[in-house]
Design brief:
By secondary structure, the chain is α/β, with parallel strands linked by helices. It is 31% helix and 16% strand. The chain has 9 helices and 9 strands. The protein has a 9-stranded mixed beta sheet, sandwiched between helices.
Length: 313
């Protein structure tokens, strides 16, 4: 039977004014992150978002614009530890954006944060609605995962562990790969299964075929359960760390709670963390240098990956 552990939550900030200042700063930064991509040189960084360029962690080697498939959006960036180590764990991070938008350059702050702590991190782009509908973006994620397994992870007998990570819609995509092995079975040979799954504010449990903002994206789904990770959980799912902000009004926390309960019921080891005073975007921004004080998201992720590495053969 798997174990279910809930980390203790952080206390809510006592200073209302401080929270207002923080939220105001976040809104300004989000506007720049989402709306403005610039050609900006900062150390080794180039052609990224202003936010990621300014607040990137140092001590990282970056390999940008690697192709993992035939489409223009089948591109990924690789963030490597500066020491050149090629034996540690690999994280594949899928960003959110409601399955409608998003750019990998925006999330350089995620790649550098993890790589600076010894975790090679890959951030892929994937096709978006309205060009494609479900499950095309999950298939793209599987293609990116296969590329990582074949080009970075090493041989199957001594492969580096690959951890799936995602935020929001990206957490849904990563969770689909974690719980539904059919996406990895494309007749091109055996690849290592994910060593773990880490989800930030994922919509794992809602029915996307009924919501006004998502029903067109999932219009090809004939059975809603096929697009709901919570409904697809089996005992074959990898260990999971699932995180949510209690102030999230975009993806409600019950999605993570229900998913965690399903994993636990299936005997999968799952750790669940909830953070008071943190909203939907604030959860992923807590990985960046200016906002790490708000919640220990980065610390919990790196601790979890360290345990996964120890458990790997």
């Amino acid at each position: 039977m798997g174990t279910f552990t809930k980390y203790s939550t952080m206390p809510r900030a006592k200073t209302t004014f401080a929270r207002k200042i923080c939220l105001a700063l976040a809104l300004m930064i989000i506007a720049g992150v989402v709306g403005v991509s610039v050609m900006f040189h900062y150390g080794q960084l180039s052609a990224g978002s202003a936010f990621s360029a300014v607040f990137a962690d140092g001590g990282v080697r970056i390999d940008r614009g690697r192709s993992y498939g035939p489409h223009a959006r089948h591109m990924l960036d690789i963030y490597r530890p500066a020491d050149g180590a090629e034996t540690g764990p690999i994280a594949v991070f899928f960003y959110g954006g409601g399955w409608r938008d998003g750019e990998r350059a925006t999330y350089g702050f995620v790649g550098t944060a993890l790589a600076a702590r010894g975790i090679t991190t890959v951030v892929p782009d994937y096709r978006l609605y309205p060009e494609v509908m479900f499950p095309a973006f999950v298939e793209d994620a599987a293609r990116a995962y296969r590329w990582v397994a074949e080009n970075l992870a090493g041989s199957t007998d001594a492969a580096r562990p690959i951890i799936l990570i995602g935020h929001s819609a990206g957490a849904h995509i990563a969770a689909m790969l974690a719980v539904d092995g059919s996406y990895m079975q494309d007749g091109q040979g055996t690849i290592p299964e994910p060593a773990a799954f880490i989800g930030l504010a994922g919509p794992y449990s809602f029915d996307p075929t009924t919501f006004d903002t998502t029903k067109e994206i999932f219009a090809s789904v004939t059975e809603a359960s096929r697009a709901r990770p919570t409904e697809l959980v089996t005992g074959q799912a990898p260990p999971a760390l699932v995180m949510h902000g209690l102030d999230d009004e975009t993806v409600k926390p019950w999605n993570t709670r229900t998913f965690a309960q399903a994993l636990d019921a299936a005997g999968v080891t799952v750790v669940k963390s909830e953070f008071p005073g943190i909203g939907h975007v604030g959860l992923v921004l807590a990985l960046s240098r200016p906002f790490r004080w708000r919640a220990p998201v980065l610390a919990e992720i790196t601790d979890f990956i360290a345990k996964v590495k120890q458990a790997s053969p």
